[in-house]
Write a structure and sequence with these properties.
Length: 205
């Protein structure tokens, strides 16, 4: 079954392919009727909107974790810097204004719990089991490891761990995300369900 996606979803700035977004919808709908979803790395809310629409359709919610200060590649002078998202007063990146506007415009405010914090701080006292965790935060090895260790253990049995930006060929992209994808399978706790474009989906055994 397909669900109606928010009208603004294609105009929201971000880094998620449509087919990958559709995969998030399918797996969130399958696993989140009784448990919430959580994403690490929301940016302007593109992935959040897919997850929120899916969660809303099954009566669930998504926790959206992002410090909104941007990853390395979003900083001034870097490849994916967007000056519109730079707060000149704070002299820092700030994607939260844009994020909130996009969620509000989509009418999905009541399906999203923004957590404006680093992934490690948000994970520190976390106890709620999760139907789906989507990892799309920092791409350094340290950031990916912190995301994996902070969140993978909260995926409930039968739930899904989704990891973005898998590049089997190191020339196409950083290896930190695919490293945690491999680590999850080696742990014996997860099995690979599919890889759609650069999005890996694993099921918690
Ligand atoms: N999922 C988004 C893209 C995320 S880009 C989309 O669909 O378009 C990566 C995001 O991760 C950035 O917004 C950055 O601020 C955030 N991020 C990077 N490292 C983080 C960390 N350690 N804790 C929380 N957020 C982090
Ligand atoms: Mg990504």
């Amino acid at each position: 079954m397909t669900i109606a996606l928010p009208a603004n979803i294609d105009s929201v700035k971000g880094f998620l392919d449509k087919e990958e977004g559709q995969a998030l919808v399918e797996y969130a709908r399958a696993a989140c009727a009784k448990l919430p979803a959580l994403e690490v790395g929301s940016y302007c809310g593109k992935s959040t909107l897919y997850l929120a629409a899916a969660c809303q359709s099954v009566g669930s919610i998504v926790y959206a974790v992002d410090h909104h200060r941007g990853s390395e590649e979003h900083q001034p002078g870097e490849e994916y810097h967007d000056p519109v998202l730079f707060d000149s007063q704070a002299q820092k990146m700030d994607s939260f204004r844009e994020f909130r506007a996009n969620i509000d415009a989509a009418g999905l405010t009541d399906s999203v719990v923004p957590i404006v914090a680093t992934s490690a701080v948000a994970a520190k006292m976390w106890q709620t089991p999760l139907g789906l965790v989507f990892i799309d935060g920092g791409h350094s090895e340290a950031a990916a490891q912190a995301d994996y260790h902070g969140w993978a253990r909260h995926v409930a049995p039968g739930g899904f761990l989704a990891i973005h930006d898998l590049f089997p060929n190191p020339e196409e992209g950083g290896q930190a995300p695919i490293n945690i994808w491999r680590q999850a399978q080696a742990s014996g706790l997860f099995e690979s369900v599919e890889v759609r474009k650069t999005l890996g989906i694993l099921r918690r055994i």
